[in-house]
Amino acid sequence: MTVSFAPAPQAAPVAPTDVLAAIDLGSNSFRLEIGVARHGQIQRLEYLKEVVRQGSGLDADRNLTPEALERGWACLARFGDRLRGFAPQQVRAVATQTLREARNRDVFLARGSELLGFPIDVIAGREEARLIFIGVAHSLPQSPERRLVIDVGGRSTEVITGSGYAARLMESYRVGSVAWSMKYFGKGETTADAFDRAMVAAQAVLDEAASIYQGQWDAAYGASGTVGAVSDILVANGFPADRISHEGLLWLRERLVRAGHVDRVRLDGLRDDRRAVIAGGLAVLLGLFDLLGISEMVAAHGGLRHGVLQELLQRQISPADDVRAATVQRLAATFGADAAQGERVAALAQNLLQQLHASPQPGIDLARTTRKLRWAAHLHEIGAAISHEDAHKHGAYILDNCDAPGFAQHELHRLSQLVLGHRGKLRKLDTDWSDASFVHQLLCLRLAVLLCHARRQPAAHSVQLSADAASQTFTVQLAPHWAAAHPQSMHLLQQEVDSWAKTPWTLLVKV
Asked: How far apart are CA 132 and CA 126, in angstroms?
């Protein structure tokens, strides 16, 4: 397969630091939202949307077809051209259900990130739901009401309740407009029988929502995708603006059934890019209205990409309030990790990392690398709640499989690999040994755990760490008499030298 996207010219204007951009790689459309931060709020500067239909590009083996790959790459190349000059902290791209499912997603992500110019985060379903709620909440007046937010996407549907800007109950269900249109309206036939089967099937997937969300909300809101398309049609045909009623949904269903086929539907407000997926989305939405007892829903103007922008802004305004830091604290507390030991290891690991980076390292963001190293240190013992013997393995499993607000799946996997590798043999790691940033984190964490093995804070000035990037060699320089004063730690350091000898990197210990 060949993709012939030429790289854009390197010279480009630098975006002002108060300009932020979010990219939403949905199953039906890719969207780019660019906004400017003003007084803690974000004002839209530009919005780009392209219908990519990746959700319908999964084959029987759940691989994206060559055509689906190229459609996505072509869109990301255009988005990337628009984002030339933006700094990494100004941009975040998130991918949802189709790329959660795609078995060849790494192929798409590697080339897609290169074309876009920024990494692409595949986020878990509940994380998607949390960000959707934040985006919707920021588009509405502040209110103490308990809000139900629903987003019927291409291959997943998110259902969330919460108040203010905080989501409380979040779930993502594998049902959506693209998937249901392909499965139950595959030939475009919009018969009453097809709608009945699609609604029953949707309710079978969504059934648990009836008990989970019952009595948990005061007003219902819909976001993006199907909700926006249905709202546009109803408004264009005389229904109240921004309101979706059960009556309106039944009216739309009747019009689609009467047409008999999506190609014969003639409705004001129905965009051509929505024609092929409107029946599946409507069936899911009707199923939710019936299950949850919704009589009317407000079509909100916020969504996933707006939630991403709000979190980007929050990370800039107050890094200490990063939701990921709160998630790390919650996980450590939930699994009973020793907080004092976590901080000892974190402090020493940070000190060692700063020694390695006494001079700037090309391509490595020290602040970000340090933050994630500290998170790994605070989480390195969470697996002990299951078994002390294999705590590192259990800790890694927890991180690879938990719901962790704020984290993308690849971020959690990187943390899991640090936790898995904080002790024992290194060949068990699923890592790229040419990734200097990860290798630095791993070494500093292992040395900090080793030196804090007695659960006391060692004298950091007695241990100096340096690196020769050209020869991929690390050197630990110990103060005089240190080895005699700490024979157990010296023994562990000698074992550590042997462990690194089986990797492309070398560790030397000098007294």
From this structure: 10
